[in-house]
Amino acid sequence: MPHITVRDLSVHYNGRPALDNVTVQIPDRQITVVIGPSGCGKTTFLRCLNRLIDTTDGARVSGEVLIDGENIYAPGADVISLRKKMGLLSQKPQALPMSIYDNVAYGPRLHGTHGRRELDRIVTEHLKVSSLWDEVHDRLRAPASQLSVGQQQRLCLARGLAVEPEVLLCDEPTASLDPVSAQRIEQRFVELKSEYTIVVVTHILRQARRLADYVLFFYLGELVEHGPAERLFNDARDERTRAYLSGVIS
Amino acid sequence: MRRRLWEERVVRGLMLASMLAVLGGLALIIGIITAKGARALNWAMISQIPKGGYYLGKEGGMLNAITGSLALAFGATALACLLAFPVCLFLQHDYSGRTKLALVVRTSLDLLWGIPSIVYGAFGFTVLLYLGMRASLLGGIIALTLVELPIMARAMEEAVRMVPMELKEASYAIGGTRWETMRKVVLRQALPGILTAVLLAFGRGIGDAASVLFTAGYTDSMPRSLLEPVASLPLAVFFQLGTPFPEVQSRAHASAFILLVIVLLVSVISRLLSARTSRYSVK
Amino acid sequence: MRFRLLQERLSTAVIGLISVAVTLLTLVIIAALVHRSLPILSKHPLDRLLTGTDWHPGEGRFGFGPFIVGTVWVTVLAMALAAPMCLLTAIYLAEYARPAMRATVRPLLDVLAGIPSVVYGLFGVLLIVPLVSDVLAPFADKHLRFIRPVAPTEGYSTGYCVLSGGIVLALMVAPVIISVADEVLRGVPDAMREASLSVGATHWETVKHVTLRAAAPGLIASVVLGFSRAFGETMAVLMVVGNVAALPKSVFDPAYPLPALIANNYGEMMSIPLYDSALLLSALVLLVMVLLFNLSAQAVLVAARRRASQ
C-alpha cells in the first residue's frame, strides 16, 4: 500500500507562489481531509499528487512527492502508471461522452482488459460499490449525460475505482450535489477507506468533521498545521487554525 | 504499454507533417507571388492606365484596375453594411422575440452564405439584362454586394450576439428605447467585431472575380461613371495571364502581388482598428 | 418624447423590412434563374440535359454530364486531400502546440483565408501545373499504371487537370477548415480531458477516445464548411483544370467544372441561340447542388450530435 510522503513541495503559477514548501506524510487507509479558505492551495496540492498539475500552463513544481518510496517527480517517472494508482473525483462531475457502461470500462480497456465477461464483471462490481447499480442496471447502454448530477458523480466514482487505484483524490466531491446524493457519497468514502487511502479537499467544515481521520490545514499556500482529526479539531496548536475552525476567517 | 506510447509518437509525427505541409503550401503561395510579382512591379504600373496595346506588351499601367477594384469594393461594402446591420439587429431577441422569424432569417442568411459567387454573377447579369443595362460599375457593385452581404452578416451577427443582455437591460432600465440602446450601447460595445466584419467583407470583395466577370465588364479607362464598365484587379490578373506574351504575363504576377498586398493591408488594418476600438468595450 | 417614439417606430419598421427583403433574396435568385432557364427546358427534357455528354451548343446539343461529373471529381478530390490533413493540423494546434505557436499560427490562418481566388489560381499555374506534368504524372505513369483513375491516360499530362484543381482547391479551403476545427476542439471542456487523464490515459488516448468524440459534430461541420466553399470556387480552379468538355477518366485528365463553364462562355452567350439559357440553367444546377449538399450535411450534423452524446 502506498505511503504518500510530500517533501518541500512548492508550486508557482507564472511566478506567483501557490504552494510554499509543503512537507507532510499522508497516512495509509484513512480519510485525510484538506481544509482551508478558497484560493489557499488545496486544489493545487491535490493536483500535484497525481501530476495533473502538468497540464496547467505556466505551473512550476519543485520538491518531491514519494509514493511507495518512489519520487513521482523524478525525471523519467511513469506518469501514466502513477495516474492509474490515483483515482480522481472532481467538483463538477464530468461524464465522458459515451454510454454508462463505456464510462466505467474506459480505464480498464485502455490498460489492456478486453474480454467481454471480464469487463462486464468490472462494470457491475464498481457500479455496485458506488451504489449506482440499482438505478442504471437496465440501461447500461444509455448515454451517461442523461444521468442526474448526483448519479454522474457516483458514475465518476465507479469510473475512478474501475482501474483499481490505491489512492482516491477528491476535490470538493459533493459541492455540486444535493444533500441526499452528498450523503451517499460520504457513506461510500467511509466504507471504502478500509481498502483505499482517501484524500478529500473540502470547504465544508461539518463534512470535514464527519469524515476526517487526519487533517491538513492550508492557509495562503502554506501548510499551517496537520494532525489526527481529534486533536486538530479540538485542540489546534496554531492560532490561524483556531481562527478558521471557529469561523473568524473563512 | 509500449504500444500505446509508440502509437502516440506516430500520430504526433503525422500531425506535425500535416501542419508543415499545409502551412508550407500556404507560405509558398505568398512567397512565389511576392517573388515574381515584386520583380515585375514598376512605378508605371501603379500610376498609369493602359495605353494602347498594353496587352500586347506596350506601355501603361494598371491604375484603371486598382481604382476600379477599390470603387467596386467600397460601393459594395457600403451597401452590404446598410443591409447587414439591420438584419443583425433584427436577429437579437430584442426585435424578433421568441418567434420563428429569427430562425427563418438566420436560415436564409446561411443559404445565401453558401451560394457560390459565380451564381451571384449570373443572377446579376440576368438583372442587368432585364433592366436593359449593360455591364457597369453599378452592376458590379450590386453583384458584389450580394457576395459580401452573407459574409459580413455572419461575422457581424456574432459580434452583436456577444453583447451581454445585462448591458442592454441597463439601458432599457433607465427608459431607453430599443433603437437608442442599439445606437448607443450595442454599437459601441460590438464595434470591434463589427469593424472586423466590414473589413473582412471588404477584403473578400476586392478579390472576387467571378461575380464581377459578367456584371462589371472591363475597360482600359479609369472609373468614370456608375453606368460604364469598370476594370478590376482580379480580372486584370486573369486576362493578362491569358496572353501568350511573357512580358504581359509577368504583369499578371505584378497585379496579383498588388492584390495580395491590398488584402494583407486590409487584414492588418482590421486588427489595429479592432484593438483600438476595444477601449470602450465592457469585458 | 414624441420624436423618440417616432424614431423607434421608424427604425423598427426599416429593420423589419430589410430583414424580410434579405430573407426573400434567396427565393428571388432561384426564381430569376428558373425563369431564364425555361427557354432551354422547353426545348430539351431536363434528364437528358443532365445526363447527356454531348456538348456542342452551336449545333443545339447541350449535355451537362461532363460538367457535373467534372465538378464532383475536383471537389471530392480536394476534400479527400484537405480533410485529413486539416483535421490533423487542427488537432495538433488545439491539443499539442505550445501557446506561442498557436498565437502565431491562428492570425496567419485568418490572413490566408482572405487570399483571393485568382492569386491561388496564379500560384497553381506557376507551381502546381508544372509539378503535376513534370513530376507527378511521370511518377504515376511509371509506378501506378495499374490503378486507372490515378494514372495518366496516354502516359502524360499537361498539368492542367483534375489533380491540379484538387490540390489548389484543397489549399484554398484549408485555412477555413483548420480555424473552425481548432475552435471546436478548444471548446471541449478541460474537465473532460482531466477525467480521462486521471484514469491513466495517455494524451493521445484522451484525444482519440474523448476529445474527438465530444467534438465530432463540430468537426464534421468544419469539413462541410470547407466543402461548401470548394463547390462554388470558380477562378482558381478554372485556371488550372484544363477546361475540356469530356468525362475525365483519371485525375490527370482535364475536366470542366460547372463554375468554369459559366465563367468561360458568358461572352458567347448572346450569339448562339439558347446558350444564355443553358448557362443560366447550369448556374441553377450549381445552386441546387450546393443547397442540397448543405441541407444533407445539416442532417448528418444533427445525427452526429445525437450520437456523440451517447
Give your account of this protein's structure.
The complex is a heterotrimer of chains A (250), B (283) and C (310). With 250 residues, chain A is an alpha/beta fold. Chain A is built from ten helices and ten strands. Helix content of chain B is 76%, strand content 0%. Chain B has twelve helices and no strands. Chain B has helices at 2-40, 43-47, 63-90, 93-96, 101-114, 117-131, 137-161, 165-173, 178-207, 210-215, 233-241, 246-277. In chain B, helix 1 packs across helix 12 and helix 5 packs across helix 7 (137-161). The longest helix of chain B is centred in the first third of the chain and has 39 residues, at 2-40. The mean pLDDT of chain B is 87. A two-stranded antiparallel ribbon of chain C has the order 1-2. In chain C, a hairpin with a 4-residue loop joins strand 1 and strand 2 (61-62). In chain C, helix 10 runs antiparallel to helix 11. The model of chain C has no long low-confidence stretch (mean pLDDT 86). The interface between B and C is large, with 82 and 75 residues.
Strand content of chain C: under 5%
Number of helices of chain B: 12
Dominant shape of chain B: globular
Main sheet attributes: strand count, strand direction, barrel closure of chain C: 2 strands, antiparallel
Largest inter-chain contact set: B-C, 82 and 75 residues
Distance between the termini of chain C: 56 Å
Rg of chain C, nearest Å: 24 Å
Q: How many β-strands of chain B, per DSSP?
A: 0
Number of strands of chain C: 2
Mean pLDDT reading of chain C = 86
Structural descriptors:
heterotrimer, A: 250 residues, 4-stranded antiparallel sheet, 10 helices, globular, B: 283 residues, 12 helices, 0% strand
Quick overview of this protein structure:
The complex is a heterotrimer of chains A (250), B (283) and C (310). Chain B has 283 residues and is mostly helical.
Q: What secondary-structure arrangement, pairings included, does this model have?
A:
The complex is a heterotrimer of chains A (about 250), B (about 280) and C (about 300).
Chain A: E1 4-13, E2 16-26, E3 31-35, H1 42-49, E4 59-67, E5 70-71, H2 79-85, E6 86-89, H3 100-110, H4 116-129, H5 133-136, H6 149-162, E7 167-171, H7 179-192, E8 197-201, H8 205-211, E9 214-219, E10 222-228, H9 229-234, H10 239-245
Parallel strand pairs in A: 3-8, 3-9, 6-7, 7-8
Antiparallel strand pairs in A: 1-2, 1-4, 4-5, 9-10
Chain B: H1 2-40, H2 43-47, H3 63-90, H4 93-96, H5 101-114, H6 117-131, H7 137-161, H8 165-173, H9 178-207, H10 210-215, H11 233-241, H12 246-277
Helix pairs in contact in B: 1-12, 3-7, 3-9, 3-11, 5-7, 6-7, 7-9, 8-9, 9-12, 11-12
Chain C: H1 2-43, H2 46-51, E1 55-56, E2 61-62, H3 65-96, H4 99-113, H5 117-143, H6 162-186, H7 190-198, H8 203-232, H9 235-240, H10 258-265, H11 275-308
Antiparallel strand pairs in C: 1-2
